[in-house]
Every structure is written in structure tokens, then in C-alpha cells.
């Protein structure tokens, strides 16, 4: 708290905002040359999308639904995806080929599996959709 005077000279109590109250939000900036139709930049856009989704409620809900749809597993190695392993967003149909950011075109992969898939241009088996119309967002 800090005390200041108002225009009539009466003391006023004010709460100072501490720097530690402000949450640090690291933005991933679009690089000047970034082009969503360039296959080489697919993982760059995927990490940006993942970051965006993790930072708003609607996106977080989508992530959670993806995770449940995959039975919390990575479709590449069939191991569980946890907070500890971390995750990456992967487009089933790459953006470079017209793939959208719809939940039906997304899956979660371990960061390492994701790197392997992109560097070796592997196909990932699409997880079976869960019954109950969860597929479109
Ligand atoms: Zn994996």
C-alpha cells in the first residue's frame, strides 16, 4: 500500500501493483518469412497453434478433448502423454496441403515423436474418433 494525496489534499491509500503480480506471457512471434503453405515450416505453425490453444479456455478445452480422444496416448509410440512428457500439436493433413486447425485434423504427440515424424516425413495413424459427436469444434 502507498499513501498519496487527492486534489483536496486528503490522504488516499493506494495498492501498488507488484511486478510479480503480472503474469509473464511469452509470445511466439510470426517470423517475417513465415508461410503456412511451406511444408518446411509446418512444425513452426504447429508450435504456435499449440501455444495459442494453451493460453485460452476454448483452446484448452479443445486440447483436453484431443487428449481424451486419443485415450491420453501418443498415436506414434502408444505411450501416455502427461504433463511431464509434454505435447505438441500435429496436423493430420499438413497446413501446406490445405489442412485446417479443426479438432478433427489435429492430434497430440510427444515433442520427440513429433520431431521424428517431421524429420522422417512419417505418417501417423489417425486415432479412432470417439463416439458422441466430439469430433468438430
Ligand atoms: Zn510419442
Automatic annotation (TrEMBL):
SUPFAM superfamilies reported in the protein's UniProt record:
His-Me finger endonucleases
* InterPro entries the record matches: His-Me_finger_sf (IPR044925), HNH (IPR002711), HNH_nuc (IPR003615)
Q: Name one Pfam family in it.
A: HNH
Keywords (A to Z) from UniProt: Nucleotidyltransferase, RNA-directed DNA polymerase, Transferase
Q: Which residues cross the membrane?
A: none
Identify a single GO molecular function assigned to this protein.
RNA-directed DNA polymerase activity
Q: Which domain of life is it from?
A: Bacteria
The record's Gene3D superfamilies line, in alphabetical order, gives: 1.10.30.50
Where the record annotates domain HNH nuclease, the positions are 63-115
Name used for this protein in its record: RNA-directed DNA polymerase (Reverse transcriptase)
